Amino acid sequence: MSRVLVLLMVMAVVVFGLNGQVSGFDVFPICTGSGIVSPPSISGNIVVWGDSRNGGWDVYSYDLSTGTEFAITTNQSAHIHPLQPPAIDGDIVVWSDIRNIVLNDNNTDIYGYNLSTNTEFPISTAPVQQGTHVAVNGDIVAWVQWKGSDDYDIYGYDLSTQVEFPISTAAGYQYEPATNGEVVVWSDLRVGYDTGGENWDIYGYDLSTQTEFQITTADDHQEFADISGNIVVWQDDRNRYGEEGTLHDIYGYDLDTQTEFSICTNNARQEQPAISGNFVVWMDDRNGDYDIFGYDLTTQTEFPIATGLGDQLKPAISGNTVVWESGGDIYGAVIPEPCTLTLLAFGGIALVRRKR
Q1: d(CA 201, CA 215)
Q2: Which residues have CB under 8 Å from 237's CB, separation 6+?
Q3: Residue 86 near residue 134 (C-beta atoms within 8 A)
Q4: Contact 47/62 with Cβ under 8 angstroms?
Q5: CB 121 within 8 A of CB 113
Q6: Which of 65, 204, 262, 303 could form a disulfide with 45 if both were Cys (CB 3.0 to 4.6 A apart)?
Q7: How far does Cα 8 stand from its chain's mean position?
């Protein structure tokens, strides 16, 4: 009896997606042609982003389960900060708002919106500049607050108690917070900022014990942290800092075991990771422009998600749904079952031996 090698092409990983995109998975549009958009955020079936279709910057949303788009705020005097996208967790959307800016000051505030009650509410309206990189999880909202000169701190707000509190007020820069509702993580430049050097690290803060701790101690830059459960991920320059353009890698840290590990060290730029559960996603320029790649922490498998023409930028993830910005539009894709991911790791081709 002879053996026949049967090539099974997994079409879902090589087909052309919508709008001319080539993807590891089927890509679907979320918002196209509305104007310039900010990078999106996602929680469950709801995607949110900043949108300039009305001339200012408003907050828009899209329900993946119903295919319905709706505006959260389009008040002409209440616009989100154009460089800071909104964030979402569950029914709560938060953003940095410039409605109270007076003349030439840079004061910005933090506002929120409850999707279940269709109610907008202020979170922090102190007369300072605040709101760079707003994050939310559960009852906890975190943001950057400018204290003047080169001093940026991390502040938080408990939605259940309506109490604002400091998270990190160390000297220098504390930037880009993310939270899982129990721990807040951020990029920190407290070492070397006053001497002109730069050595960004990742720090964390345990909300229950009110304890700050350092996560990374490697040289050079560790930035753009995200957290889900007990896993923290970030963009890391330790291996190739100083090379032309600086090539970044993706690293992770297990808070339970206090163990650091590498996720992707491909000889290209891996930037701005996001994590949800066992999946880590990031933007990656190994193919000549930025694509979206992913990694399954359970199977330790890397896979492409969106490799379309042009740049696919700044992904966000909730569960197994990934969203990103590309060319002023927003797209999404769903990571399939683990068996399909295994095929992806081998280029989408399975060799099956069949006996006769």
Answers
A1: 8
A2: 220, 221, 222, 246, 247, 248, 249
A3: yes
A4: yes
A5: yes
A6: 65
A7: 35
Reading the block at residue 311, the tokens are 């740049």
Which residue type sits at 4? V
Burial status of residue 179 (CB atoms within 10 A of its CB: 0-12, 13-18, 19 or more): buried
| Among candidate residues 281, 278, 302, 301, the one with its CA nearest the CA of residue 290 | 281
Contact assessment for residue 109 and residue 99, using Cβ atoms and an 8 Å cutoff? yes
Tell me the backbone φ, ψ of residue 30, rounded to 5 degrees: -115, -45
- pTM comes to 0.87
Say which amino acid occupies 275.
I
Instruction: Summarize pLDDT for 208-238 with one digit per residue, the tens.
Output: 999 999 999 888 889 999 999 999 999 999 9
**Contact yes or no for 123/141 (Cβ under 8 A):** yes
Q: Copy the structure tokens of residue 33.
A: 């042609």
Number of residues that this document lists for the chain: 356
The token pair at 317 is 């993830």
DSSP lists the bridge partners of residue 318 as 321
Residue ranges with strand state E in 79-172: 87-89, 92-97, 109-114, 119-124, 130-137, 140-146, 152-158, 163-168
Q: Hey, what are 46's tokens?
A: 């709801």
Amino acid letter at 105? Answer: D
pLDDT 10s digits, 102-117: 644 667 889 999 999 9
